[in-house]
Input
Amino acid sequence: MAAAEGCVAGAADTMSKTIVLMGAPGAGKGTQARLLQERMHLPQISTGDIFRALKHADTPLAKEVRDIMQRGQLVPDEVTIQLVKERTAKDDCKDGYILDGFPRTPAQAASLDNLAAEQGKQIVPIQIEVPYDLLEKRMTGRRNCPVCNEIYNIYFKPPRHDNVCDLHPEAQLVHRADDNSETVRKRLATYEEQTRPLLDYYDSKGLLRVVDGDRDTESIYRDVEATVKDE
Ligand code: AMP
Output
């Protein structure tokens, strides 16, 4: 992977940031990305959410993406990279943005280096580290509100009333199709094989910051926000 110029941590305090939330599926990237979006007013770009939004589209690409997700595999790099390029070119990204679920392969990381250099952005990769044996329960127990996207967990953060959002009691919570035990195990294997090596990649460039993700949401957030502001 070629190291791109112009995106070295600490190079320029005035540079806007590409915050990259990293970590295994179930580590809590989505929860932290939502909080950063709300409190730091930066757009959250979740490639998983974008692919899930294709759920009802009746095109060959949408069908292919649905099948890939159901198998716990990754959508091809060309499709994913193009999507991130287009989304991050929008006006709301000019002061920085948060990536949740991208990059996931060496080719995606290389393209992000180039993109950040072109956009004059500093990459801030933050790993949310969670013990491996917690991840499966975090994913199989996960439920989302279809209205506000709040993330619950039947084991760790249950809603006040069974299967409905605390803020939108009219809405039944949704269990993601790929959060079943079989797909979860495949997603974890895909992560180990294709995405975990990116932690070493960013670490070797001196960019990676690690936050302990085995705590309550607010404690994790305090560290994530402090890391973003420090860099
Ligand atoms: P997530 O919500 O981030 O766990 O993503 C759900 C699924 O979307 C993944 O298991 C992949 O099938 C697909 N996906 C999300 N982000 C990417 C990416 N950066 N590259 C390839 N596939 C992705």
About this structure: DSSP finds nine helices and seven strands in the chain. Residues 1-12 have pLDDT under 50 and may be disordered.
